[in-house]
């Protein structure tokens, strides 16, 4: 079995990098390095040395201009010391079959870059994440149902799960009806908000905290190597993280997503 090296990007307002790296280590990653974005630009860190790339949650640039908008411009147009566009580095990382995970603000970054949904392997913006229908910041636990038909590697065989959400701009907005239909046809909606009583996807508030199209909580790309989701799997890394653990309201931890990623990269 080969080593699995995980890279967690921090800087410009991320604030979930420590628990994200911890969740990767819990899942068996041999390394989980937390690295400043500027170190990648300076060439101190190479994406080629890693197998699993994670964009954690936070408030990139204070969410000015829209969540992750400014950060997407940095990744799209900045070059590293070898004069290579960072977006080309990301494209190679994805094309090599390595895994990319974006959580909350990281998910917002992936859709602004067009890495998700990544139709036809292209980085073209097809969806966005707008203000919650409630028009307020949502900080609550939600239930998630994994799409069993999805190609997503990280959501394979997941049971009904609970995770916390904490966002103001989490409502998935496709650019057109045709985009939504393609997401549905290609089974790229990897996770949906679910009714806790039935386990079925729901648009009812607060079980769906933001009003996302088709109750989408997370998207994958056609390769299944990229996943973005608004809920925070890294924030449920131990039974005691769950608000109902003293009442035996136990659920599968969010680290199962990371475990799927590490097992896949090891060839298990």
How would you describe this protein?
By secondary structure, the protein is of the alpha/beta class. The protein contains 7 helices and 11 strands. The chain has helices spanning 17-26, 37-41, 69-77, 86-95, 105-113, 177-185, 255-266, and strands at 5-10, 31-36, 52-55, 99-103, 127-130, 138-146, 161-167, 171-174, 189-194, 216-220, 226-229. Strands 2-1-3-4-11-10-9-6-7 form a 9-stranded mixed beta sheet. Strands 5-8 form a two-stranded antiparallel sheet. Helix 1 links the parallel strand 1 (5-10) and strand 2 (31-36). Helix 3 (69-77) crosses helix 5 (105-113). The longest helix has 12 residues, at 255-266. The radius of gyration is 17 Å and the shape is globular. The chain starts with a strand and ends with a helix. 49% of the residues are buried. The model has no long low-confidence stretch (mean pLDDT 95).
In short:
The protein has 268 residues and is α/β, with parallel strands linked by helices. It has helices at 17-26, 37-41, 69-77, 86-95, 105-113, 177-185, 255-266, and strands spanning 5-10, 31-36, 52-55, 99-103, 127-130, 138-146, 161-167, 171-174, 189-194, 216-220, 226-229.
């Amino acid at each position: 079995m080969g080593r699995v090296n995980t890279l967690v990007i921090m800087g410009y307002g991320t604030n979930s990098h420590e628990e994200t790296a911890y969740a990767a280590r819990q899942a068996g990653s041999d390394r989980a390095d937390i690295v400043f974005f500027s170190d990648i630009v300076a060439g101190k860190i190479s994406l080629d040395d890693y197998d699993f790339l994670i964009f954690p949650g936070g408030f990139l640039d204070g969410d000015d201009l829209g969540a992750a908008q400014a950060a997407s411009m940095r990744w799209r147009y900045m070059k590293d010391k070898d004069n290579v566009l960072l977006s080309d580095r990301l494209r190679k990382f994805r094309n090599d079959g390595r895994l990319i995970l974006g959580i909350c603000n990281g998910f917002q970054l992936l859709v602004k870059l067009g890495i998700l949904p990544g139709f036809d392997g292209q980085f073209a913006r097809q969806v966005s994440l707008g203000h919650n229908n409630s028009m307020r910041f949502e900080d609550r636990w939600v239930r998630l149902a994994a799409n069993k038909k999805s190609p997503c590697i990280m959501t394979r065989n997941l049971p009904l799960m609970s995770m916390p959400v904490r966002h103001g701009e989490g409502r998935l907005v496709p650019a057109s009806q045709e985009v939504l239909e393609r997401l549905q046809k290609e089974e790229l909606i990897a996770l949906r908000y679910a009714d806790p009583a039935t386990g079925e996807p729901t648009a009812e508030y607060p079980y769906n905290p933001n009003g996302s199209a088709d109750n989408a909580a997370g998207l994958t790309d056609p390769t299944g190597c990229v996943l973005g989701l608004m809920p925070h799997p890294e924030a449920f890394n131990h039974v005691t993280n769950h608000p109902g653990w003293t009442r035996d309201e136990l659920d599968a931890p969010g680290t199962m997503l990371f475990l799927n990623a590490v097992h896949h990269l090891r060839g298990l």
